[in-house]
Every structure is written in structure tokens, then in C-alpha cells.
């Protein structure tokens, strides 16, 4: 064999061996004890669950930034004054309910406790009006409740549904078939008729009572949260279009200065006679339904380690910093696993790379350690980054995203040495291959691809921050160990984290990252399995 060729092969093998030894050496700095040391701070009660934009979330950002600074990582964002900063600030915009009530005399009825509201309404100051009962509030060719009824400038109150005779036929259709005046969205047709006739506000007497009504109000309260969800763009609303208060027969009776029993008889009279109300019932009511604008100021934490000869290419390693904050009953959701486990994993990986760089073994490609916020609200921090990248996405080689790796799910209760990998093969076959090789050489955990299946109903691929990179064509791996009984609950605490199980997963991310930033060729985007 050619002597020069033999020497070259020996040099290549030796260099590779040293490279492998270096990776293993620095990976050893990732320890269960250090992970716990950071997590007892990140998931402490003093941070009050790290709700997006809250003081606790900002304390977490400060802690993480301070750590990156200590280990020599440079700030990657730019502050408003032009100076460099670890904080990539952005705003979320929110429209929410302020004070909302229905008042009869001196009695105030509480929103989402005594009644609920269909649609959007903005009544910033208390507004009083006369109220008139308009039967079922129907205006149809074969039946109308509005003959000789002048509702202009008045509020109207009406029964839910539509009249039905003793033989089971509906008065409007003349058959046993319901019409648009019945069903879960019938309030829209009724409210539109009333408002078109000049009515001020619409009240609908729900047929539900007791526990059924309480359950309905709770469910509607949850549904109404969609009107209070934050967005990246300022919210544009069109209140006062079509809306209706849903009230019990008891509240309706108070409004009309009568009794629930008499209202029930009026309703039965319409059904029996097949004719609208013959007796006019009126009253007075005051309402307030305040919509408020809110700006939530939050920030991603972005710390940069510059590479050497391939520094223009960047690997992103990400996790979300925020959690869901404090429950309505005052309990703190510390989010030790979700995603305190990912947050502290980034710190340990950053420390390992920093130690390597300090000893002359720094990465060839650059690394961005990205702790995003807004994940729990809708992946907003990573979306903001993908639309306002600190480094061009065309130069971003991959995103390794860590979200919940500190616990064991029911499917793996008997063997904690596993991790779900999601997305590794969807855009780059080489990324998947590198991940598999790193696991086989260094960790030897079970790599579970259950949730990588496009048919998986959980759709986890779309539910964490990596997706905002993947949809831009950046290869990703999502590291995850599954949902457990404390997911989004106050029980997600530090003492339940399995640090001995977590540490090898963090090392797997490190070894995968090490290969990605030090290999000669950038991984290719050679598939699209999204």
C-alpha cells in the first residue's frame, strides 16, 4: 500500500478519534445535579409559573441571560438603542372582557356565572333600556312574533327555540322538522331580526335549568376565551354586530317584573294557540359589556456562539421559557417539565460547548441558543423569530427543539430509557441518520417514533416551537418524553423530574449538535414528509 496514503488514512482516523473523544469529554459536563441546580430556580414558586410576559417569566429570562453571559456567549438581538442584547423583544396583542354584567334594579348578575354572552358586544359604560317580551323572537313568512311590536330603541327578550304544537309539529314549518329558529346557532338569526328592527340589546331565555345550566355556562366561558386569545398582530374586532345575552328564566322574570312560572305559562300559551303573545310584558334592564385592549410585552432569549471556518451557517437549539402561570384558584403551575426541563437542558448544552471552545475545540458552525416565549399561547415566540430571524433562515442548518423531557409517560412506565423523536426525517434524511448514529454510539436509548407518524392524532409535530422552523424549510428534531398526569397542572414540580433519565437525552442533543456543527458538509434538505 502507498505509504503516503497509509499515513493519510492514519491521520484521518486519529483526527476522527480525537473528535469523538472531545465530544464525549465535554458531554460529561452535562450532569443530573447541574440540571437540577438550574431547575429549582426556573421552576420555583417565586417565578409564579412563568406566564408569558409576567414578572416571573422575565425573571427566568434574566436568569438564563445571566448564565449565557457567564459562559461567554454573546447577545444576538439588538435593543431599541442599538446596543446588543440577549432579549429579542416582541409584543402580543389581546382583546379581553373587562367588566360585564346584567343589572335589574340594584341586583347585578355576574358574567359567566349567572349568564353568558353569545357573540361580541362592547358597552364600555352602563346602558339602561326598556325591555319587551317578543315571544320566541321569530319573524318568518308563516309565523312572526313582531306584528304590532315596535322594538326600536328597546331591548327584547325571547324564549329559546321555536313553538311546537301538541301534535309534535313546529308552527313555522308545519312539520316535525326544526327550522333555523332552533339549534345552537339559532340565536344569530333571532338577534339579527331584532337588531335590524332597531332593538338595542337581545336577551334569550335558555331552556336549561339547574346543573345543566351551570354546566352550559361553564362550557360557554371556556369557548369565550377565543375572544381573549393573544395574537402577534393587533386585534381587529367588530363588536355590536350580532350578540345576545343568554339568561335563565329566573333572571328573565326579574327583568320583566314577573315570575318564572308566569313566563312558562306564556310560552305554553303560544304553543297551544299557535299564535304570538296576546299580552305585552315589559320591564327595565341595565347592561355593561366592556372590551379591553391589552399589550403583552415579552421576549425571546437569544445567545450566540460564533463558529470558526463555517461561522455563517447556524444551528439553532431551542426550548420555551414560559409556562401557564397561576390557576384561577391561586395554585402555581411551576412547569418543571413543561418546559423547565428544556430550558435547563439548553443551559447545560451551552456550558458544554463553551468549555470546548475555551479549550480550543469550538464549533466550526455557529450555534444560537434560543429560549422562546409565547409557546403556551400559540408558539408565538418561535413564530416571531421565524418572521424576524436574527440570522438568515437560509443559513440555518437545523433546529433541535427540546420540550418536556423530564418525566416518563404511561407507555414507558417500565423502562424510562427512551425519548420520542419527532420530525427528524421529515426534511433531511441525513439529520435522521446523524441522530440515530449519535444515539447508538453514546446513549443507546430507545428512540420512539410513534408521534412522528403523520396519522398520529396528537399531531405533536405541529405543537411545539420546531414547527415554525420546519414550515420555513429548516430541518428539525423535536425531543419529547410524552404527556403525563401533571401536564398543565400544579403537580408539574421539580421533585417529580427524573434527572438521571433526562441527562442522557440532553447528551444526545449535544452529540447530535456536535456532529451538525463540526461535519464537513452541511446537511441537505432532501425530502418533504410534512
Automatic annotation (TrEMBL):
Quote the protein name from its UniProt record: M28 family peptidase
| InterPro entries per the UniProt record, alphabetical | EF_Hand_1_Ca_BS, M28_fam, Peptidase_M28
In this chain the Peptidase M28 domain maps to 300-499
Q: Where does the UniProt annotation place the signal sequence? A: none
Q: Which organism is it from?
A: Dyadobacter fanqingshengii
Q: Which GO terms describe its molecular function?
A: metalloexopeptidase activity
Record's Gene3D superfamilies? Zn peptidases (3.40.630.10)
Q: Name one GO biological process term.
A: proteolysis
Amino acid at each position: 500500500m502507498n505509504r503516503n496514503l497509509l499515513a493519510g488514512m492514519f491521520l484521518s482516523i486519529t483526527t476522527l478519534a480525537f473528535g469523538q473523544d472531545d465530544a464525549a469529554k465535554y458531554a460529561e459536563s452535562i450532569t443530573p445535579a447541574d440540571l437540577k441546580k438550574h431547575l429549582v430556580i426556573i421552576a420555583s414558586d417565586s417565578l409564579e409559573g412563568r406566564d408569558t410576559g409576567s414578572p416571573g417569566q422575565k425573571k427566568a429570562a434574566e436568569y438564563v441571560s445571566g448564565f449565557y453571559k457567564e459562559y461567554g456567549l454573546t447577545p444576538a438581538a439588538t435593543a431599541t438603542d442599538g446596543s446588543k442584547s440577549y432579549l429579542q423583544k416582541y409584543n402580543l396583542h389581546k382583546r379581553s372582557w373587562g367588566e360585564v354584567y346584567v343589572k335589574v334594579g340594584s341586583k347585578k348578575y355576574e358574567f359567566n356565572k349567572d349568564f353568558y354572552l353569545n357573540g361580541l358586544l362592547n358597552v364600555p359604560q352602563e346602558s339602561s333600556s326598556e325591555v319587551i317580551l317578543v315571544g320566541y323572537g321569530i319573524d318568518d313568512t308563516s309565523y312572526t312574533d313582531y306584528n304590532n311590536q315596535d322594538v326600536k330603541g328597546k331591548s327584547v327578550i325571547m324564549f329559546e327555540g321555536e313553538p311546537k304544537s301538541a301534535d309534535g309539529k313546529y308552527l313555522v314549518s308545519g312539520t316535525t322538522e326544526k327550522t333555523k329558529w332552533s339549534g345552537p346557532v339559532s340565536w344569530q338569526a333571532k338577534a339579527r331580526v331584532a337588531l335590524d328592527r332597531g332593538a338595542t340589546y337581545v336577551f334569550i331565555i335558555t331552556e336549561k335549568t339547574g346543573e345543566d345550566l351551570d354546566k352550559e355556562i361553564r362550557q360557554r366561558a371556556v369557548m369565550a376565551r377565543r375572544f381573549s386569545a393573544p395574537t402577534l398582530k393587533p386585534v381587529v374586532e367588530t363588536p355590536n354586530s350580532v350578540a345576545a345575552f343568554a339568561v335563565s328564566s329566573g333572571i328573565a322574570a326579574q327583568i320583566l317584573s314577573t315570575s318564572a312560572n308566569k313566563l312558562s305559562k306564556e310560552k305554553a300559551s303560544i304553543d297551544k294557540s299557535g299564535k304570538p303573545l296576546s299580552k305585552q310584558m315589559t320591564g327595565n334592564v341595565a347592561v355593561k359589556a366592556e372590551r379591553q385592549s391589552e399589550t403583552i410585552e415579552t421576549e425571546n432569549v437569544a445567545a450566540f456562539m460564533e463558529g470558526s471556518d463555517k461561522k455563517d451557517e447556524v444551528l439553532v437549539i431551542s426550548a420555551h421559557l414560559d409556562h401557564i402561570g397561576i390557576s384561577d384558584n391561586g395554585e402555581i403551575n411551576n412547569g418543571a417539565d413543561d418546559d423547565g426541563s428544556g430550558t435547563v437542558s439548553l443551559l447545560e448544552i451551552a456550558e458544554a460547548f463553551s468549555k470546548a471552545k475555551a479549550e480550543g475545540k469550538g464549533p466550526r458552525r455557529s450555534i444560537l441558543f434560543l429560549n422562546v416565549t409565547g409557546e403556551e399561547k400559540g408558539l408565538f415566540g418561535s413564530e416571531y423569530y421565524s418572521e424576524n430571524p436574527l440570522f438568515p433562515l437560509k443559513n440555518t442548518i437545523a433546529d433541535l427543539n427540546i420540550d418536556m423531557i423530564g418525566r416518563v409517560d404511561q407507555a414507558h412506565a417500565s423502562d424510562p430509557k427512551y425519548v420520542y423523536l419527532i420530525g427528524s426525517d421529515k426534511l433531511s434524511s441525513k439529520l435522521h441518520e446523524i441522530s440515530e448514529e449519535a444515539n447508538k454510539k453514546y446513549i443507546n436509548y430507545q428512540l420512539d417514533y410513534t408521534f412522528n407518524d403523520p396519522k398520529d392524532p396528537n399531531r405533536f409535530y405541529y405543537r411545539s416551537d420546531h414547527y415554525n422552523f420546519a414550515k420555513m424549510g429548516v430541518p428539525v428534531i423535536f425531543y419529547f418524553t410524552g404527556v403525563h398526569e401533571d401536564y398543565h397542572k400544579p403537580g408539574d414540580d421539580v421533585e417529580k423530574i427524573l434527572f438521571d433519565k433526562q441527562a442522557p437525552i440532553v447528551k444526545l442533543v449535544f452529540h447530535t449538535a456536535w456532529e451538525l456543527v463540526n461535519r464537513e458538509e452541511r446537511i441537505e434538505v432532501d425530502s418533504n414528509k410534512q
